[in-house]
Amino acid sequence: MAPATAPVATLAPVADNMLRVGTKVPLKLNEELTTKGKKLRVGQHFRMEVTEPVLVGGQVVIPAGSPAVGEITEVRNKGMWGKSGHLTAQMLYVSANGRQIRMTGTFDDKGVTGTGGVVAAIAFVPIAGFLTTGTSAKVPLGAAVTGFIGEDVPLMSAAAATPLMVQPTAPMVTTAPAASSSPALTPAVATTPK
After folding, report:
1. Residue 3 forms part of a structural domain
2. Are 143 and 29 in contact (CB under 8 A)?
3. Spatial contact of 28 and 142, defined as CB atoms under 8 Å apart
4. Residue 188 lies in a domain
5. Which of 16, 35, 58, 75 minimizes the number of CB atoms within 10 Å of its CB?
6. Is 9 within a domain?
7. Residue 133 in contact with residue 105, Cβ under 8 Å?
8. Which domain range does residue 116 map to?
9. What are the φ/ψ torsions at residue 24 (nearest 5 degrees)?
10. What pairs with residue 108 in β-bridges?
11. Closest Cα to residue 166, out of 93, 62, 65, 69?
């Protein structure tokens, strides 16, 4: 479901009509990531959403609630001899009104190793060390993570009274929004000409 876009307050005009590489995008996970149950796989995608609007020149270009996608890049399940679980993930893209904007950034989690228990177990009962495991890696639902814009994204405005928009990569047909007293930044919607 697409997030609702809140009205943008009256702001000064934008001097730089570009969403720049490296712009911070605050996100939260919309699902739990864990190595428990051994179901997490490298290449698996997961959902996130933007927690605070991304601004250019004080105007919103990516609204809070916009969907984003990440990908699991490394998984190690917990195992014998106290081996803990581990997962690593990277940001792929954020969607702004139909456009996918590439992102960069990674995060990871490592379970707790059972090394202390293994050492103690080996000292007293050697076979017990083999049976001692670490804990699974887990990044909970709602966990805060940070991505960064991975490409310069031009913003465009058809006229001073219309909002600035994320420029689409494909040809587009747009309908001009109702005139407002101040410009606002919103992403463009790409459609195919008929």
Report:
1. no
2. yes
3. yes
4. no
5. 16
6. no
7. no
8. 18-166
9. -75, 135
10. 88
11. 62
